[in-house]
Model the fold of this input.
Amino acid sequence: MKALIEIIAKELVDNPDQVKVTEEVEKDLVKIELVVADEDMGKVIGKQGKIAKAIRTVAKAAATKNNQKVTIEITQ
Done:
């Protein structure tokens, strides 16, 4: 899951070397924190949050395959 989010985020931003993804797994819940540079925040969130929502949708689809739930927090 971590690798999937990292690949997607690095393709969206101008500073892929500043993308950091951490993953914490607790039974059936996966918590992912995505950290990007300040100037790339808008590119990851998108207009009205559409890109962030799409990233979460892809992550939820991948997590469903393993009977898990996922939360993604995007920070600077």
Remarks:
- The CA atoms of residues 34 and 64 lie 20 Å apart.
